[in-house]
Amino acid sequence: MIPARFAPVLFGFILSGLMSAIVSGVATLKAVGLPPGFALQWLGAWLTSWSIAFPSVLVVAPVARRAVDRLVRR
Length: 74
Hints:
Blueprint: H1 7-32, H2 38-71
Helix pairs in contact: 1-2
């Protein structure tokens, strides 16, 4: 098991992976349709997207948390 102190990073890793897979899949499908080899095109787009999404999530998450803290009633 992974130590609990890594939970925020693991959450960002999983969330960015899932979201980039969905978004790159939709974008690839819209751009090229559903030709033979679609899965490989999608995989390439997804890996590129995830390599940008994961570090972006780590940088942007604290800003988003602060924004949420300001927007919710306590």
